[in-house]
Specification:
- The model has no long low-confidence stretch (mean pLDDT 96).
- It is built from 17 helices and 13 strands.
- The chain has 454 residues and is of the alpha/beta class.
- Strands 10-9-8-11-12-13 form a six-stranded parallel beta sheet, with helices on both faces. A five-stranded mixed beta sheet has the order 3-4-5-6-7, sandwiched between helices. A two-stranded parallel sheet has the order 1-2.
């Protein structure tokens, strides 16, 4: 919404939320999320044509176009638990819009939703008793955290789905005219509603599939002496395949990939497409395997025990340039090591201890209540050097640029010996680290202690 405000100065944009705390943060210098480039855009537009408010009813009445941008988490109980998306918030938004609107509106699904959710939204809106007409569009977002601003400023495409009726097509063209202020018309795609809704799930599934594919090969590389970086380069130079999303790692995280694939699996199951469901579920199976494999390699490399050992974890966010910890791979490695009774010291430049434990509790059921004493086993350090001081091992789990620039000779001197490095993002100079004296283990890279013919 901030980018729309910046690119369309004649359009008034207001973001509303039930949470006064969130809205107060958006109206302050300290935004509630970390995203490079966002504060500058908000500062540029806030109070001019960009506003943040808790007066939801008043803003609905004023609006011509309403974007539904609410969370659609995976259900934790009931039918489809663990796979299906919970679209309760979408329905509640539709009911509120129908309740307070005084004029016709265009309602846009921005949230990632199961295909045919728009049908439910449309039915709720049509039940208004005021004779109002609503057109429902789907406009999924194809951005990545950490690069969201350039993704929005120069998108690969904008996708708008609508009912293929004269009224639906007119509504879609109205939204097209908004994006056309900065996006070339040939990059604005219009489809039917269901193609638009499904495209978002499919896009994320394809991206996650590539991550799991190269991660499966990383395990084979470690077993055979091949180098996954060399394989990635050879494979990525094929124009039919391309280079992007071929970096092996401890696995994907974030709020979208796993949720959307599980949603896709559930949709396939719902329509009786069990083989399709099994195919896509394997992407999740491989991602879970990669995280577990990394934890197990740490333990086995450190003489099959980490009990009582200090281990530094560098990075807790699911990727660099964000503070988002939802489904972060780091969390699962920390959980595994804590259960092995290691002493964990975590450093991440953007993640707070409260956010870390909130996600650990929600996703892993790991908290002081479920595992007494667990919080004492995890220290949050003020910097990387403090985290590594006296540690038996360090693990790089988020690809923050600052980790590449650390003084590893200094870190080596401060660590217990033998000093282990586990590079879960393949961002470090492994040859240089071995010269310093570290024992280095990396995703998909051959271990020189294991192979003599490299």
């Amino acid at each position: 919404m901030a980018v729309i405000a910046a690119k369309c100065p004649k359009i008034r944009v207001c973001v509303v939320d039930l949470s006064k705390k969130q809205i107060d943060a958006w109206n302050s210098p300290n935004l509630p999320i970390y995203e490079p480039g966002l504060p500058e855009v908000v500062d540029q537009c806030r109070g001019k044509n960009l506003f943040f408010s808790t007066d939801i009813d008043a803003e609905i009445k004023k609006a011509d176009i309403i974007f539904i941008s609410v969370n659609t988490p995976t259900k934790t109980m009931g039918i489809g638990a663990g796979r299906a998306a919970n679209v309760k918030n979408c329905e509640l938004c539709a009911r509120k819009i129908a309740e307070v609107s005084e004029s016709d509106k265009i309602v846009v699904e921005k949230s990632t939703v199961p295909v045919r959710t728009a049908q439910a939204v449309r039915r709720v809106l049509e039940c208004n008793e005021k004779g109002l007409k609503f057109q429902v569009l789907s406009n999924p977002e194809f951005l990545a955290e950490g690069t969201a601003m350039p993704d929005l400023m120069e998108p690969d495409r904008v996708l708008i789905g609508g009912v293929q009726s004269p009224e639906g097509i007119k509504a879609a063209e109205t939204l097209v005219s908004v994006y056309a202020n900065w996006v070339p018309r040939e990059q604005i795609l219009t489809t039917n509603l269901w193609s638009s809704e499904l495209s978002k799930l499919v896009a994320n599934a394809f991206l996650a599939q590539r991550v799991s594919s190269i991660n499966s090969i990383s395990a084979l590389c470690e077993a055979t002496g091949a180098n996954v970086s060399e394989i990635t380069r050879a494979v990525g130079m094929d124009n039919r395949i391309g280079k992007r999303f071929l970096n092996s790692s401890i696995g994907f995280g974030g709020s979208c990939f796993q949720k959307d694939i599980l949603n896709l699996v559930y949709l396939c199951e719902t329509y009786g497409l069990n083989e399709c469901a099994e195919y896509w579920n394997q992407v999740i199976v491989m991602n879970n395997y990669q995280k577990k494999r990394f934890s197990e390699k740490m333990v086995s490399s450190m003489f099959n025990t980490v009990t009582g050992k200090k281990i530094a974890i560098l990075g807790f966010a699911f990727k660099k340039d964000t503070g988002d910890v939802r489904e972060t791979p780091s969390m699962f490695v920390v959980r595994d090591l804590v259960l092995e009774q290691a002493k964990i010291h975590v450093y991440d430049p953007q993640v707070s201890r409260d956010d870390m434990w909130m996600e650990m509790n929600y996703t892993c059921n790991l908290s002081e209540a479920t595992h007494p004493g667990v919080e004492a086993a995890v220290t949050t350090s003020p910097n990387a050097y403090a985290a590594c001081d006296g540690a038996h091992a360090l693990a790089v789990l988020t690809e923050w640029d600052e980790f590449k620039e650390l003084d590893f000779a200094r870190i080596y001197q401060s660590m217990a010996k033998p000093a282990f490095i586990f590079d879960g993002r393949n961002i470090l100079d492994h040859t240089g680290l071995r010269k310093i004296g570290f024992e280095v283990h990396a995703i998909g890279k051959p271990d020189p202690n294991k192979f003599s013919d490299l």
